[in-house]
Amino acid sequence: MSPKIALHDPVFHAYFWIVLISLAVGGATLGFLRVVLKKDTALMFRTYWSWLAIAGLGLVFVFAGRITTIAGVTLLAIYAFKEFSRASGLYRDWWMTGAVYVGIVTVGIASLVSNPRGEEPGNGWYGLFVAMPALEIALILLIPILRNRTRGELQRISLAIVGFVCIGWMFGHLGFLANAINAYGFVCYIIFATALCDVAAFTFGKIFGRHPLRSEISPNKTWEGALGAFGVAMILPWLLRFSFPFFGAWQLILTGLIVGIGGQLGDLSISVIKRDIGTKDMAATIPGHGGILDRIDSLIYAAPLFMLMVEYYYPLR
Amino acid sequence: MNKWRYRSLRDLERTPLDRLREFPREPDMLVCGLRSIVALIIRGLLRIYNRFEIVGHENLRTNRSLVIIANHCSHLDTLCLLAALPLRKLHRAFPTAASDYFFQSVARLWIAAVIVNALPFGRQMRIRQSLSLCQQLLASPGTILIIFPEGTRSITGELRAFKSGIGALVAGRDVAVVPCLIDGSFRAWPKGKRLPRPRKVRLIVDAPRNYRERGRDKKDICAIAAELREAVNELRQRDGRN
């Protein structure tokens, strides 16, 4: 991945236009709702403007190459973890927060450098990358010992581990995907598909929503919305088959399942955390979306599962 | 088994921009780290570029709350006073900054909140609230307030009259007031110039005073303000003779 390659890469070109057209279609739909049907769409427009900014930034980071993609994912993870720790109160503990920051940056570095012994093909040090949870948990467990303290430490240890594994490491797989031979296809597809599924779940839920999906966890999500998003996720791999032309039917189905089910499970998992803490959004960073974490939560399941699936069937790098 | 309790930060529902505007700020690890690094860089630059020098450094060595007052003719003044403090006290030091100037545009707001850790002070409106906020901060030990009692940067380099608010803040309270003189900052970076020039800047710190025994009526307050101005003026004359 580099700007020079991106300029001539048909997959990146295609995604550039797909994103542009999707945003135009979305804007036109909202405009139709507002002007013709006279609906109150102020809140939806606020969300839409933020989508424009997210799409623009995302395209720029992916266009600029492998290093910026990994750096961008790492920054997003750092910021999302910051929101998580601010909401859960872990942020008051600078040692724990600092340890997780160190872990997230190390995940970024492991995605960036190559194996120093040269035993792996291409960029990215997969051995270190998959070993990061063990190393990071060891670091986190060390902190209470160094401080010689026990009171309330289990809560902080647990919050730090959940924060690191979910946000730093599982979401961090998105950065490692940038090392793939077919990086543009994988990275663009997984981001675009999870984003589209989120919108689909919202839209189907808004139109047909009757039966609450998990009433205790997220009162606004419905079975109708979830099934609609699942349907979109299952069709999308076939429509966007050019992103991974070497995928067979089985891999396309798995991709659909990972995005369709995993995306929504990630969403619900973060909702569980939010409900227990007692906050509606993790932060107010993106107008109309909530925090960064509320935006990237569907990738927490989808990114690692997708990468493991690809790694299982094909050489990733 | 202890029940888990999540103590969320207070400003969770604020946008990042509103969080900068808010005061007192929730301590933020990344912000404090950045502030410390920038402070070190500024210290180095001042030493090299402006041959910055501090006289009477020992007068700032205390763990109690302090009010530092100084003459004001340049943005360098705040940076010089911050550079005179130990790094570990940096995050408890609040230079008062005019909320109508520093807390309006995003760039200034960011610098004021992140780099300088400024306290938004209402010059025209809400002077009383700003003063009572200062008093609350001073109540906790180790707070350092940096105040320019002239209220604005002097455009001639001369010492202007002190506002009486400084008297109201310290009269009848057990808080140390340290008068300081910043010499050369007017030549180095006067109001209206884009960038500082490499002129020598010196900071002279006087012995702390205390106005615990003074009354709080208008006469006393104005008298304290005048006395403090005289103290700063004297530093200049004493410095001129040396």
Secondary-structure topology with pairs:
The complex is a heterodimer of chains A (317) and B (242).
Chain A: H1 3-8, H2 10-35, H3 42-63, H4 66-88, H5 94-112, H6 126-147, H7 153-170, H8 173-177, H9 183-208, H10 223-239, H11 249-277, H12 292-296, H13 299-313
Chain B: H1 16-21, H2 29-49, E1 53-55, E2 66-70, H3 76-83, E3 93-98, H4 99-102, H5 106-116, E4 119-121, H6 127-139, E5 144-147, H7 165-170, E6 176-183, H8 185-188, E7 202-205, E8 209-210, H9 218-241
Parallel strand pairs in B: 1-7, 2-5, 2-6, 3-4, 3-5
Antiparallel strand pairs in B: 6-7, 6-8
In percent terms, what proportion of residues of chain A is strand? under 5%
CA-to-CA gap between the ends of chain A?
A: 12 Å
CATH superfamily of chain B: Glycerol-3-phosphate (1)-acyltransferase
Oligomer: heterodimer
Q: Approximately how much helix is present in the residues of chain A?
A: over 70%
Q: Structural class of the secondary structure composition of chain B? A: alpha/beta
Strand content of chain B: 5-15%
Shape of chain A: globular
Say how many strands of chain A there are. Answer: 0
Alpha-carbon Rg of chain B, integer: 18 Å
Mean pLDDT value of chain A: 93
Q: How many separate structural domains of chain B? A: 1
Greatest chain-chain interface?
A-B, 23 and 16 residues
Gyration radius of chain A, in Å: 20 Å
Task: Provide the domain count of chain A.
Answer: 2
Let me know the largest β-sheet of chain B. 8 strands, mixed
| Poorly predicted regions of chain B | none
